[in-house]
Design goal:
single chain; 519 residues; alpha/beta; TIM Barrel; 8-stranded parallel β-barrel; 3-stranded antiparallel β-sheet; 17 helices; 16 strands; binds 3-methyl-2-oxobutanoic acid; binds zinc ion
Length: 519
């Protein structure tokens, strides 16, 4: 590979999915992996196979279906993890094992290993991984807070034991750009054998510097960037894929590096990740935020009309954003809907289209002008046909004099049940009605409402996150009626919790497995 090619390693399905509340279903993981593969991601970190049967199944299936991407699994520094990981990724045309151990003083204290004992473990585990596959990545977790001498020592051991990529994680988002560049540069200059391997950068965004740190690391000699779509990830998240890719593209004059990413696929995958993870993208988020290409102030609009480059450093089409205009109305036909959805990245089979068309017509009856964002919301609010709970009807009484009342008919496993419940406001009354018809012990962790477009007839997108027995599920829905959207989102989250109850996959969440356990 040429010296100016930067490898994009996407960890949305591992580090991103690890974020509390971002858990994705098996099907969703397969869909996201396919989109990543199609957009040209070089390496997909598909999961942490030892974490659960669910994680193992997802990594194996993604490996089987992979086209051009390398499929990587994560493993702690022990033989059991590494064997399980090798088993999961072996189906890929290009498998990789990524094994790691925390090397900073704070992280070394957890397994209570001396420096020598840890060095020996690194040697043994990397050697073991290398005996199972010829593509091995090794990470000293919390590298940026590891003593310089010790970091050099363990990196050298990993290289000698056969690691082909050395990843330098800034696990707690502590480093700063100049330091990030220097660290990689000094490692490459100091550690024997460093020129034989690829150095990777893996940054967290705790101080808002993940993108800057990753790009600086590239200037320092790193040739692999680890990142996630929308910057998804624990705490403040990881480096955002869309940011590093577009920064390298737009500022190629000062950062002369290329990636293999088809940037026109960015918007579509960003929307899918936001939808399945339940982590909405903030409107002013770089590249993929709703306002990233919006020019509302008079001065900007004037300049844009004269010459788009006045205020635009990249074109919306470069990231796959089509012009937002009125696209459809109640007279639009099925073929037009199919073609518009395809433009937005949704390829539908005949049955699915039939279903979506019915919902599109219902929406068009209530809302005169249907925008791209309305269609995206409609797609994201799809209800699985085999869902345990389905909203049949809802009538809400509200006003200044209270109490608010919700009369609901809910289909519970095929039987229609009805109730009238009261609550502190219409949404509370609605959620109480659902709870009375389908009792549950889940706790509402997040309730978020956003207008999809402008105007009082705009649809509201509602996001709900719920937790039950340590399992977290999100639900999303959209409707011109905010309370109906809320009911549907709440029911969608409950359906996911119910499905996961039935799946009976203990420890389905990667969060169930401690990264600190190295035994
Ligand atoms: O942030 C981190 O250190 C990680 C490692 C597992 C590579 O995600
Ligand atoms: Zn990480």
């Amino acid at each position: 590979m040429s010296q100016d090619r930067v490898v994009i390693f996407d960890t949305t399905l591992r580090d991103g999915e690890q974020s509390p509340g971002a858990t994705m279903t098996h099907e969703e993981k397969l869909e996201i992996a396919e989109l990543l593969d199609d957009m040209g991601v070089d390496i997909i970190e598909a999961g942490f196979p030892i974490a659960s049967e669910g994680d193992f199944a997802a990594v194996s299936e993604i490996a089987k279906r992979s086209k051009t991407s390398v499929i990587c699994g994560l493993a702690r520094a022990n033989f059991k993890d590494i064997d399980r990981c090798a088993d999961a990724v072996k189906h890929a045309a290009k498998p990789r094992i990524h094994t790691f151990i925390g090397t900073s003083p704070l992280h070394r204290a957890i397994p209570n290993l001396t420096k020598d004992e840890m060095a020996e473990r690194i040697h043994d585990t990397v050697t073991h991984a290398r005996n199972l596959t010829d593509n091995v990545q090794w990470s000293p977790m919390d590298a940026t807070r590891t003593e310089w001498d010790y970091l050099c020592r363990v990196v050298e051991i990993a290289i000698k034991a056969g690691a082909t990529t050395i990843n330098i994680p800034d696990t707690v988002g502590y480093t700063a750009p100049r330091e990030s560049a220097d660290l990689i540069k000094r490692l490459i200059a100091t550690v024997p054998g460093a020129d034989e391997v690829i150095f990777a950068t893996h940054c967290h965004n705790d101080l808002g510097m993940a993108t800057a740190n990753a790009l600086a690391a590239v200037e320092g000699g790193a040739r692999q960037i680890e990142c996630t779509i929308n910057g998804l990830g624990e705490r403040a998240g990881n480096t955002a894929l869309e940011e590093v890719v577009m920064a390298l593209k737009v500022r190629n004059d000062i950062m002369p590096f290329t990636t293999g990413i088809d940037s026109t696929k960015i918007m579509n995958i960003s929307r899918r990740v936001a939808s399945v993870s339940g982590f909405l993208v903030q409107p002013n988020k770089a590249i993929v935020g709703k306002n990233a290409f919006a020019h509302e102030s008079g001065i900007h609009q004037d300049g844009m009309l004269k010459n788009a480059e006045t205020f635009e450093i990249m074109r919306p089409e470069d990231v796959g954003l089509s012009e937002t205009n009125i696209v459809m109305g109640k007279h639009s036909g099925r073929a037009a809907l199919r073609s518009k959805l395809a433009d937005l990245g949704f390829e539908l089979g005949d049955n699915e289209l039939k279903d979506v068309f019915v919902r599109f017509k219902e929406l068009a009856d209530r809302k005169k002008e249907i925008y791209d964002d309305d269609l995206i919301a409609l797609m994201q609010a799809n209800v699985a046909n085999d869902a345990a709970l389905r909203l049949v009807s809802l009538k809400v009484v509200c006003g200044t004099d209270g109490p608010q009342e919700a009369s609901m008919v809910l289909n519970v496993n095929g039987t229609e049940k009805s109730v009238t419940a009261t609550g502190d406001g219409p949404v509370d009354a609605t959620f109480n009605a659902v709870k009375q018809l389908s009792p549950h012990g889940a706790r509402l962790q997040l309730y978020q409402v956003q207008a999809v477009t402008q105007g009082t007839d705009a649809q509201a997108t509602v996001n709900v996150r719920m937790e039950e027995d340590g399992k977290i599920a999100t639900g999303q829905s959209a409707d011109t009626d905010t309370v109906v959207a809320s009911a549907k989102a709440y029911i969608a989250a409950l359906n996911r919790l119910i499905a996961r109850r039935d799946e009976q996959q203990p420890g389905y969440d990667t969060k169930g497995v401690s990264y600190k356990d190295v035994s």
